[in-house]
Design goal:
Number of helices: 20
Distance between the termini: 151 Å
Largest sheet: 5 strands, antiparallel
Strand content: 5-15%
Length: 667
């Protein structure tokens, strides 16, 4: 038996028996419910039929009145051709005055009928909706009731009903219902036993189907059906949707009672078959342990979980990216100058104010509250910044005044203010170290030059003396005298170089003694003109001297001033173009005595004034002429030691030196 049930014919047989048992059980339950609700156990068969026919009559009359409610409310012409619903009923409707306002199709047959049933009702229009109020069968309105109904804008009507023959003529095409009603009455006691047997049979067959679902007679392995991989919840939804569609079609396409009963029976069998098939599929899935995993809900939850994990991963990545972007933004803003950062902060505040103003355009009190809160925060920040800047300003002024020991208090300073204060302190310390290093370097340089010069002078003096002695000694070889002369000339040049080097070093470091006294500036020009008249003539140069009529008095050291003039004139004699003029001018400008030396260079001046002022730099790039490149440097240092200024200009081949000294007043 077990092997046969596992076969396809066996499963199909058990499946059909189960459906049949379920249908019988359903009919038994419905029959018992109808028997109890219709009082089949206390009434006779005729009384039951009469109650059903009377209820049917009332229902048909009510449906007819509902169909005629709107034409009756319009109170137009008489309504004819009241539709016949196939129940053998004829109608005449009267208004409050007894006038016929509607009736069934007029014919000799209908007018000769006896209208034995009468119903009273009224129509009222409430907010565009027609309301029907029933007063019962064979009810007559009194005069007072008619008056009250008219005052409430309600229209009373009476409908008279005639039946072809008797109430038995009501059944018409509903005879199967009466047959089922009679069958139910006859089996009012047997339905319980039949229902119990059907229930036991349905349960046994149902359990057998669940046990053999997915099984084959020749194997114990589970062999799922073709729909096993279709999600079970999808199948359930499809089956439920099919059942609902059938119910909708049944309600929307009502024709007669026989069709309705047939359609309901077909739907019942279909629903039972669908439920059995789904139950067998569920049992097979439980056996294969795929019930939950093979559902749309499971797939949706799994997909949702994966999407959530992916979203969480993306969210974390976005968070890291935002954090990295924010870090780079902060790093970038730190590298921005303070002015640009301030502009960005002000622009952001203005943008926030604009947004808040646009959002609270019609609520100015909200904007005023925001404005007040903003300035309560902003004003203290600005005051703190101003006080911090004042401290930084005081530190800068102290350092500018020469107080390199001043330290800016960076306590309670933040952001760039603290960084700037630390930079000021570092600058002061660095300047102190630089000054000390510079002084130390200058001292070492001066000492080196002085010591080396002193050490060189001793052997150099011996060289000069012995060269002079060699030149005076009688000798048959004339070359010896020439060699002695060259040796003496170069020794003298080396001696002058050493002396100039020592003097330049002392002048640049301020170690040279300067005795300032009132002097007539034009005297220096006259003296230097006389001294260099012959030398300028030998060099093919013409000196042009311009002095003012009024004497210009300055504070100067005569000896140092003549050395300045001597260096400049000596430079002119060496590098000026032959056949040109040399201009030496003295004039007063802006309370200063200005002395100008101008000449035309014989060689192209490819150096800037700053390069020419450096030590050991000469205008003769070939360095074939005499000189050591210290003349201009010594002249500038001596000029500055006398509180004057030294300025050099080069314009093409024009070489110009300007000396300025403060004038002394007559007082």
């Amino acid at each position: 038996m077990k092997r046969w049930i596992r076969t396809i014919p066996g499963k199909l047989s058990v499946f059909l028996v189960t459906i049949l048992a379920l249908c019988v059980l359903t009919l038994c339950v419905l029959g018992a419910a109808v028997a109890v609700s219709g009082d089949f156990y206390t009434h006779t068969r005729e009384a039951v039929f009469q109650d059903y026919q009377q209820s049917t009559l009332h229902t048909e009359v009510y449906d007819t009145v509902r169909a005629l409610a709107r034409p009756l409310a319009q109170r137009g012409e008489t309504v004819v051709n009241i539709p016949d619903r196939g129940m053998g009923l004829h109608y005449i409707i009267y208004d409050e005055g007894g006038t016929v306002v509607a009736e069934s199709e007029a014919s000799a047959q209908t007018k000769s009928l006896e209208y034995t049933h009468s119903f009273s009702f009224s129509l009222a229009n409430q907010d565009g909706a027609l309301v029907i109020e029933w007063y019962g069968e064979n009810y007559s309105f009194t005069t007072q009731e008619l008056t009250d109904l008219i005052e409430r804008n309600e229209v009373p009507y009476t409908i008279s009903v005639a039946v072809d023959g008797s109430l038995d003529g009501l059944h018409g095409n509903a005879a199967p219902v009466l047959w089922l009603l009679g069958l139910t009455y006859d089996l009012r006691y047997g339905v319980y036993a039949i229902g119990a047997i059907a229930a036991v049979l349905a349960i046994a067959c149902y359990v057998a189907l669940l046990c053999v679902s997915g099984r084959r007679p020749d194997t114990e392995e589970l062999v799922p059906g073709p729909l096993h991989h279709v999600p079970i919840d999808f199948l359930m939804a499809f089956g439920l949707g099919g059942c609902l569609c059938c119910v909708y079609v049944t309600m929307d396409n009502y024709v007669d009672t026989v069709f309705l009963i047939t359609l309901l029976a077909a739907e019942l069998i279909t629903a039972a078959a669908i439920c059995l098939g789904l139950s067998m599929s569920v049992a097979c899935r439980i056996k294969s342990r795929t019930l939950l995993k093979n559902t749309v809900i499971w797939w949706a939850c799994k997909l949702t979980w994966r999407l959530c994990k992916l979203c969480w991963k993306w969210t974390k990545a976005l968070g890291r990216w935002c954090k990295r972007l924010w870090g780079r933004f902060l790093q970038g803003t730190r590298k921005l100058p303070m002015i640009w950062r301030t502009c960005l902060i002000v622009a952001a505040l203005c943008f926030l104010e604009l947004l808040f103003l646009a959002g609270s355009m019609y609520h100015m009190e909200s904007y005023l509250a925001f404005w007040l809160l903003e300035h309560l925060i902003l004003v203290p920040v600005i005051l703190f910044g101003a006080l911090t800047l004042r401290r930084l300003q005081a530190g800068g002024e102290a350092m500018a005044a020469g107080d390199l020991n001043y330290q800016v208090d960076t306590h309670r300073m933040y952001w760039d203010f603290k960084k700037h204060g630390e930079n000021l302190n570092s600058i002061a310390q660095g300047m102190t170290r630089a000054v000390e290093q510079r002084l130390k370097s200058e001292r070492m340089k001066t000492e080196l030059i002085t010591n080396v010069s002193h050490d060189i002078k001793t052997p150099l003096t011996s060289i000069i003396n012995y060269a002079d002695l060699i030149g005076k000694e009688p000798c048959d070889n004339p070359k010896v005298g020439e060699y002695a002369e060259v040796l003496g000339r170069q020794s003298d040049r080396l001696k002058r170089l050493i002396e100039d080097l020592v003097e330049a070093s002392k002048a640049s470091t301020g170690n040279l003694e300067v005795l300032l006294a009132p002097c007539e500036a034009e005297n220096f020009l006259l003296q230097i003109s006389g001294e260099y008249a012959q030398k300028l003539s030998d060099a093919g140069l013409a000196l042009v001297t311009n002095t003012p009529e009024q004497s210009l008095r300055v504070m100067a050291d005569g000896r140092r001033m003549l050395r300045v003039f001597d260096n400049l004139m000596n430079n002119i004699c060496k590098y000026a173009q032959r056949g040109t003029r040399v201009y030496l001018t003295l004039e007063e400008k802006a309370g200063m005595a200005q002395i100008t030396f101008r000449n035309t260079s014989s060689a192209p001046l490819n150096l800037t004034p700053e390069e020419l002022m450096e030590r050991f730099v000469r205008g003769d790039s070939s360095r074939s002429s005499e000189g050591n490149g210290l003349g201009l440097s010594i002249a500038r240092s001596l000029t500055e030691l006398q509180k004057g200024s030294f300025h050099l200009d080069v314009d093409g081949d024009l070489f110009k030196v300007t000396l300025r000294f403060p004038l002394l007043s007559d007082e």
